[in-house]
Design a protein that fits this description.
The complex is a heterodimer.
Chain A (H helix, E strand, L loop, with lengths): L2 H14 L2 H21 L1 H4 L7 H5 L8 H19 L4 E3 L9 E6 L8 H9 L12 E6 L22 E6 L8 H5 L5 E3 L5 E3 L9 H5 L6 E2 L14 E3 L11 E2 L5 H4 L6 H5 L5 E5 L6 H8 L2 E3 L11 E5 L2
Parallel strand pairs in A: 1-8, 2-12
Antiparallel strand pairs in A: 2-10, 3-4, 5-6, 7-9, 11-12
Chain B lengths: L2 H24 L29 H6 L33 H4 L26 E3 L5 E3 L3 H8 L1 H8 L6 E3 L9 E3 L2 H4 L27 H4 L1
Helix pairs in contact in B: 4-5
């Protein structure tokens, strides 16, 4: 090995280059560059390459109202370019004096999965691959053993004799393990109790997914696919605006609806009225009444100390 | 080998390497962007707020055919239809009504008698046991007259379903379903239904055989 030799050789090359060898070398070089470009093609297919604007965006809580307006406009522009429909994107803040809770009556639920699909439709979830925030479990009567849970059941008719059903989605914990592990604070709990995700801040490390004991977080391994005519244009920044490949998402109690005073989509379609939602700080609310009057409650995996805002109950 | 040839060889080799990479991507040799299995979009019956049945009030609202409710098209005013029973003292629903009515109210058919609910003097009305007359679309109060605790739950929004706004403010309406939007008054037990399709896996997996492995 003689490094000094090759170093001096490099200098010589420049000197000794004649027209013919230059042409030959450059022809090879052009081919080489073209080949390089072609081999980079998969990179170019990443249409979701961050724009400078998105890349430079500040942390959610540091955005001034004018800056937020710009961000919302950018999101509307991007969505319109992609889906051919201009959405109405809002940044909805938690309301004063409101803390949300969800109560789900397991005596009523029949496992029909209407909530799952109403949620997909409302929240612009990918149809292929499928992303679903709600997973409906089927358990044998008298058991709360998650090992025995099955979520691919598909009988002719539900409910099935000998089983009960339990829909599981983000439990909006008071003490959420997912928030603690996020290295970039892209997920946090707001004052109304909703744990939100800033899809522009998420780096897709999936720590939160691993930390969640309820399997409630979903990762976009690929670019989400939503048919253009199925896009729900009524959107919120921390809610159902379209996500990109490589970010986390999960149930956010339909922020775009609930912070506007409406019931979440899963509740609106439940044919048996098993789902109840509202402000726990208001004792006359539906959830207030249920928590006061019903006798048997279950907080899923409460031994973990997560303290869910999602209550399962039985009629007795 | 002189310096120029060396460069040509190196660049040439690189070109060949990149070309084969490009060819590889183009031919999808690593199966990366493999066409995904088609997933049919879910039937819209699974994401609309439809209930189990359409009540009289709902049929009125959508201006559907109401001929079933036109009692005096067939019956005579002032002549209550006689109730017929079979040998076991069960009510026999006459042919003309058997198309839309199956009587099975309560686990032991405890409330099958037509005139527990319908007013025999005026078939177009309902009647509670304490003699209060109600219009056909006011049936929720009829149900409440026998199902007190359930009615109280319903009134508080706990039984049944309330839609619209949880935050009751002016201009923010709530809609509370009536009993007969879900329950058939004649056969109130909620029937079974076909579930929406189960989730599709990202990667199809072998069917796990729970039964045989345990």
């Amino acid at each position: 090995m003689n490094s000094s030799n090759s170093a001096s050789g490099a200098v010589q090359t420049g000197d000794g280059m004649n027209r013919r060898s230059f042409l030959r070398a450059s022809a090879v070089l052009t081919t080489g560059l073209a080949a390089l470009a072609a081999s980079l093609k998969p990179l170019m297919e990443l249409e979701d390459f961050p724009t400078a604007e998105r890349f430079m965006q500040k942390y959610y809580t540091e955005l001034t109202p004018t800056e937020m307006d710009k961000v919302l406009k950018r999101i509307a522009d991007e969505t319109e370019a992609q889906y051919g429909k201009r959405p109405h994107v809002r940044d909805l803040k938690p309301m004063d004096g409101v803390e949300f809770a969800y109560c789900l009556n397991l005596t009523r639920c029949i496992g029909c999965r209407k909530c799952v699909h109403a949620c997909v439709k409302e929240n612009n979830q990918s149809r292929n691959p499928e992303i679903q925030y709600i997973r409906v479990l089927r358990l044998p009567h008298g058991s709360m053993d998650m090992e025995k849970a099955e979520h691919h059941y598909n009988p002719e008719k539900v409910p099935e004799p000998g089983f009960f059903n339990m829909p599981v989605q983000c439990q909006q914990c008071k003490n959420p393990p997912c928030v603690k592990v996020c290295p970039v604070h892209a997920t946090w709990t707001d004052t109304d109790g909703i744990t939100v995700i800033d899809y522009d801040w998420c780096i897709g490390c999936r720590y939160c997914e691993a930390a969640c004991p309820y399997w409630a977080r979903r990762f976009n391994f690929t670019k989400p696919f939503i048919p253009k005519d199925k896009l729900n244009p009524e959107m919120a920044y921390l809610g159902n605006r379209p996500r990109r490949q490589g970010v986390m998402e999960k149930c956010h109690f339909c922020i775009q609806r609930t912070r506007d005073g409406r019931y979440p989509a899963c509740l609106e379609v439940c044919p048996v009225g098993a789902r109840k939602f509202g402000n726990v700080l208001d004792p006359s609310s539906e959830v207030g009444t249920i928590l006061r009057t019903k006798r048997v409650f279950i907080q899923l995996k409460e031994e973990l100390g997560t303290s869910p805002r999602f209550f399962y109950y039985f009629d007795v | 080998m002189n310096q120029n040839t060396k460069i040509t060889v190196v660049v040439g080799a690189l070109a060949v390497a990149f070309l084969s990479l490009a060819a590889g991507f183009w031919a999808n040799a690593w199966g990366h962007q493999e066409a995904r299995e088609e997933i049919p979009l879910v039937d819209s019956q699974f994401n609309t707020p439809d209930t189990f049945r359409q009540s009289y009030a709902e049929l009125m609202r959508i201006k559907a055919d109401l001929s079933d409710f036109d009692c005096y098209a067939c019956h005579d005013k002032g002549k209550p239809p006689p109730i017929r029973y079979d040998k076991n003292h069960n009510i026999v629903v006459p042919q003309e009504h058997a198309g839309s009515i199956v009587m099975a109210h309560g686990s032991h058919d405890r409330n099958n008698l037509c005139f527990n609910c319908h007013d025999e003097q005026n078939l177009e009305l309902l009647q509670t046991r304490d003699g209060k007359q109600l219009k056909l679309f006011e049936s929720t109060r009829l149900c409440g007259s026998c199902h007190g605790p359930t009615y109280r739950d319903w009134d508080a929004g706990v039984h049944g379903r309330t839609g619209g706004f949880w935050d009751a403010k002016p201009n923010q309406e709530r809609t509370r379903l009536n009993c007969v939007d879900c329950h058939n008054p004649h056969k109130p037990k909620i029937p079974g239904r076909h579930p929406a399709p189960p989730p599709h896996m990202l990667h199809p997996v072998r069917q796990v055989e729970h039964a045989t492995t345990h």
